[in-house]
Amino acid sequence: MPETLLAKRTRLAAYTTLKVGGEAELWEVNSTAELREASSEPFRVLGAGSNLLISDEGVKERVVKLGKSFNNLEDFSSSGEVWLGAATPLPGLVRRAASAGLSGWEGLLGIPAVLGGAIAMNAGTRYGCIADTLQEVELMVGGEIVRLFADELKLSYRHSELPQSAIITRAKFKLSSSSPETVEALLAKVDAARKGQPKIKSAGCAFKNPEPDSAGRLIDEAGLKGLRVGDAMVSLEHGNFIVNLGQASATDVLKLIDMIRSRVKTPLALEWQLWGFGEAGNG
Ligand code: FAD
Ligand code: EPU
After folding, report:
1. Which of 21, 38, 68 marks a domain boundary?
2. Cα distances (angstroms) measured from residue 145 to each of 5, 152, 160
3. From the CA of 118, how far away is ligand 1's center (Å)?
4. Dist CA 278 CA 154 (whole Å)
5. Could you tell me the pTM of the whole model?
6. For the chain (length 283 residues), average pLDDT per consecutive 10?
7. 119 CB less than 6 Å from ligand 1?
């Protein structure tokens, strides 16, 4: 095994923004060869862990995390085209593009993802999503590197159709020229739209919006803000955020989800990806 390859039993809570989840074998990879080795047995891919609810029992598959060699923040070309590694954090990119006067990522402000996870979830807000600028992706599928055009991923609201067991390794984006002032003005709007969101441990919105309505509004209307199971609580600030007040378990969070669903008349589909609850693996 190459020296840098980390494959050890690890508590996954530390790798998620909700800070919930049991153990798994974590494989942190820093080259295509390591990625091929890590993904040769059943696995799941971990991004920044900002949209995950992981069971207290952990997961039985390997958990593959792209290491720092998949995090490259290169200069953008004058055409606004750039290839970026899938472990590149979104927040730095949004800022970097803004100061270069490049437009297209403003709607992604405040999303604590890395690019691979942002593409898999088609992360965004009403001001724009990752699909708006994505041109191509490079993936590892069955040990081979393949390229797909963005439209082949069929990105839609918080949804993508990646090939079975695919790992995004790099992606190509195209931004458009603007002025730093125009970009900053849109960033300010997006920032304002996020003002009502909690700053404590969460995994973002738990449910997809049953469009055109908002899950947060429905949960609020049902009087569920502050509803609590153990340390898992419906945020007092935004109804669609479940926050971890300290020591919440996945069991607490799931019970709270069930309670919310039973008290809101409109059916609510989870936006979160569930790991380790007997569902089929997704990677
Ligand atoms: P993870 O949560 O680690 O994984 C999510 C999914 O992506 C999993 O199925 C995983 O297997 C898959 N995945 C990850 N990396 C790869 C890869 N390289 N190849 C293939 N599949 C991969 N989301 C929004 O859309 N809009 C928002 O405004 C928003 N605001 C948020 C605010 C907060 C405070 C938080 C905590 C979350 C928010 N989210 C938001 C949710 C979350 O940030 C997004 O869903 C994001 O896209 C998840 O990216 P991640 O890197 O954390 O992926
Ligand atoms: N509202 C309430 N009570 C609440 C929450 C919201 O009445 O507790 C009302 C608001 O006043 C507003 C409407 O519901 O009239 C919509 O709320 P908001 O603007 O907060 O947007 P949202 O639909 O709840 C969506 C995304 C967020 C994204 C924001 C900002 C989903 C599920 N959520 O939230 O994405 O950050 O817009 O654009 O699509 C995520 O997906 O994890 C996420 C955080």
Report:
1. 68
2. 20, 16, 19
3. 5
4. 26
5. 0.97
6. 70 98 97 96 98 98 97 77 96 91 96 98 98 98 98 98 97 94 96 97 98 97 98 98 98 98 98 89 39
7. no
